[in-house]
Amino acid sequence: MCNGESLPDSVRRRFYSILPKATLINSYGPTECCVAVSYQYCPRGDTELPIFIGKPAGNVDFFVLDENQSKVALEVEGELWVGRHADVAMLCG
Questions:
Q1: Measured between alpha carbons, how far is 15 from 11 in angstroms, rounded to an integer?
Q2: Strand ranges across the sheet with 55-56
Q3: SS (H, E, C) 34-67
Q4: What one-character DSSP code corresponds to residue 33?
Q5: What is the phi/psi pair of residue 13, to 5°?
Q6: Which burial class, exposed, middle or buried, applies to 30 when counting CB atoms under 10 A from its CB (0-12, 13-18, 19+)?
Q7: DSSP 3-state assignment of 20?
Q8: pLDDT at 78
Q9: Which of 4, 21, 47, 64 could form a disulfide with 78 if both were Cys (CB 3.0 to 4.6 A apart)?
Q10: pLDDT tens digits, residue range 14-37?
Q11: What is the pTM of this model?
């Protein structure tokens, strides 16, 4: 499992070249939380792939909000908020 810093694709490819039967999981956790809040199973193969922070872990939701703490549209830049749906709904009204 890789957590703490971004996972370059070159590291993913090297990992599988050395440990072909192992499974590499990339996870993300913001400094403020000090926990892993997402995960992604990294695929095998030599093709260069983008590495994502993955999908939310159990009982966690992701929200992208603007400076007014309103949800942004798809493909609009914002700030990542991590929490449960009810918590963010209460904060955002």
A1: 6
A2: 25-28, 38-41, 55-56
A3: CCCCEEEECCCCCCCCCCCCCEECCCCEEEEECC
A4: T
A5: -65, -40
A6: middle
A7: coil
A8: 93
A9: 64
A10: 999 999 999 999 888 877 766 788
A11: 0.68
